[in-house]
Design goal:
Number of helices: 3
Strand order of the largest sheet: 1-2-3
Strand content: 15-25%
Length: 105
C-alpha cells in the first residue's frame, strides 16, 4: 500500500491480457471471437426498458429517451443484429434539443 492507504501504482497491472477480457462492461473473448454481456447486465437493461415502457402515459421526456438509447447502444456493441430495434429510437429524438420536451412511445 502507498500513502493514505491507496494502492501503490505498481500494485495494479498496467495492461491486462489473455483470451477473455472485460472491457467497458462487455466480455470480450478473443479465442471465440465473441463479445457478450453478462446475464446480470442483460437483466438490468431489460428491467430498465420494461420500466420505461410501463411508465404512466405514452409520452416520455427526451432525457429518458437518451438514457434508454445509451444503454441500448451499449448492448448493440455486443449484439449488432439488435441495431434495428435501436434505430427508430434515434429517429424519435432527432431534432429535439430541450431535455424536458416529450416524445411519444
Amino acid at each position: 500500500m502507498g500513502q493514505a492507504g491507496y494502492p501503490a501504482p505498481e500494485a495494479e497491472p498496467k495492461q491486462v491480457s489473455g483470451g477473455s477480457l472485460e472491457i467497458v462492461g462487455l466480455q470480450l473473448d478473443a479465442d471465440a471471437m465473441r463479445i457478450t454481456m453478462s446475464a446480470e447486465q442483460r437483466g438490468q437493461l431489460a428491467k430498465a426498458i420494461e420500466d420505461f415502457l410501463e411508465g404512466e402515459g405514452r409520452r416520455r421526456m427526451l432525457v429518458e429517451w437518451q438514457r434508454r438509447a445509451g444503454g441500448m447502444q451499449w448492448a448493440v456493441d455486443a449484439y449488432p443484429l439488435h441495431r434495428l430495434a435501436v434505430t427508430p429510437q434515434h429517429d424519435k429524438m432527432a431534432g429535439k434539443m430541450q431535455t424536458k420536451s416529450y416524445a411519444m412511445i
